[in-house]
Amino acid sequence: xxxxxxxxxxxxxxxxxxxxxxxxMVFNDAYGDLLGDRNPALGxxxxxxxxxxxxxIKPNAERAMAGETLYFEAEPRxxxxxxxxxxIWLTYSYNPVLGEDGRIVGLFGTVVSISRNxxxxxxxxxxxxxxxxxxxxxxxxxxxxKLDRKRGFVNRAYVEFLGITYxxxxxxxxxxxxxxDDAERIRAESLAGESSLQPFTLEARFRRGDxxxxxxxxxxxPRWGAHGEHIGFIGVAHDITEWKLGNEALREVNExxxxxxxxxxxxxxxxxxxxxxxxxxxxxxxxxxxxAQKMEAVxxxxxxxxxxxxxxxxxxxxxxxxxxxxxxxxxxxRLADAAxxxxxxxxxxxxxxxxFSRIQRLRMAPVPVxxxxxxxxxxxxxxxxxxxxxxxxxxxxxxxxxxxxxxxENAILNLAINARDAMPDGGTLTISTAREPxxxxxxxxxxxxxxxxxxxxGMGMAPDILARATxxxxxxxxxxxxxxxxxxxxxxIARQSGGTVRIESAEGEGTRVHILLPDAAPPAEGAAxxxxxxxxxxRPAPPRARILVVDDDADVRTFVAExxxxxxxxxxACADGAEALARLDKADPELAxxxxxxxxxNGAELxxxxxxxxxxxxxxxxxxxxxxGQLEAALGPDVPVLRKPFGVADxxxxxxxxxxxxxx
Length: 664
Hints:
alpha+beta, 24% strand
């Protein structure tokens, strides 16, 4: 608007600018003199300023706002100036004004007034001269074309764009400077527009006189003679290069964003399908994450229950062992043995709970998976029975997985038993292996894994059953036929080993359980075999050893202390770490037996403090709930651990081994 307003206000010719939907009037002094008594008109809508002639002016204004360039000669108008009315003839033009975004936002025009006493020829000459002056003052190319398509007039901006003389510009064939990519289209559109005898618009690139390609938008409309005959065209062109470049840049940005969002795919339907797949995959990932979080929460709860259960069973098993060894009356001995066996079954259940909760300590090492499966062949044959065919498909010869070998055997055996129960009428049990990479998932880090698959041809599981398959204590077997911890234990072992479990099943189509374990390099030749618990062969406990016992459970603490005293040891029993440190100097222990999970200072923290105060003091954890990483962080990878619940013989063996090793 600033450019158009500056051109209007700076001109000595009568010019006006009508801006916006209401065509608010802005004009120079020459146009103001022409208005006469219609003033004040500055800033007023054109329909108010020209109210008496609006019916004739309005259609032309609307055409100009639609993009036409209009030119009228010797139009009569009645004006009142200084209280006296007179009729004058106006020659005027309307030109659309483009905003920064390329849209029409107003119109500007130039009006030439001619007295009623001037003859028509004089008025025409004056009109043409003034039109030439007005057109030459316009900052955009303007031209008048005759029926033979030759220019009858071009303005200064037109000449300057071509960079040639006026005479050359009048005869210049503009088709020679159209961009090759636009030429065929523009010629067709131009012929169609001219033949329609309606206003038409063209957009194309034209080579300017300096050789630069510029985008021009031309608006052409037919010219009519005094008797209504078609005599040619008048046109105006606007340079829209910056607008086009801006649009092109915006289009490129949009295309780049679309390529990123749609995965560099131009086909919309394919992009939408991929988006649906991504959403579905995200939902599956979120569901897997929720499941993993749920299993983690259940695992921690289960581990806590197992901890309390182990604390309860420790004095029970130890006490029953002492009673069973002390009584001789057959009936009482049978009762004691039965109670002891039930307690040990409870201890096994607690072990399964700890395996699910991933708290049970695993001895992690490279394990030859296919050798483990081969070693299980005999026990699987006896366990599964003759009604089920057992097949193995070893797809990864020589592969090693990072896990606990004993726990892997238990996991495979558990899955085989589940498969057997799912095939009461017989079928096929297939155990297969493969090495495969994984890109990562909420419950699985990126890397290479060994897959052990146990598949059956049994009854399969419904989706609601499959969703709960790894939950502890969930079972579809009849009451008394299972604990509901088989798959939960397998899941816990796999997760603690850094892997996971995947289950595929459908009713009537069998079940496939995949154990994914981290791929591992084979162990070095001659590597020493791992000793469970980090202990050597058991030795009898030497007499009169000084032992520090720390456990927050009073029953466990009492049982351990009294049992050790019965072996002849001197025992300092403490309820927590603070008490143990306070009595350390007086007790002067040769061995410390420490519970892990205690209020305040836990076992690992106490062990580190004891190491600082008594270097070389043998220590062992006596615990029913502790993560392997926490134990090893406290006392190293071979930390001795006595798992609750334990018997009298287990306690004696541990103490004997540690005291014997310390005394040489």
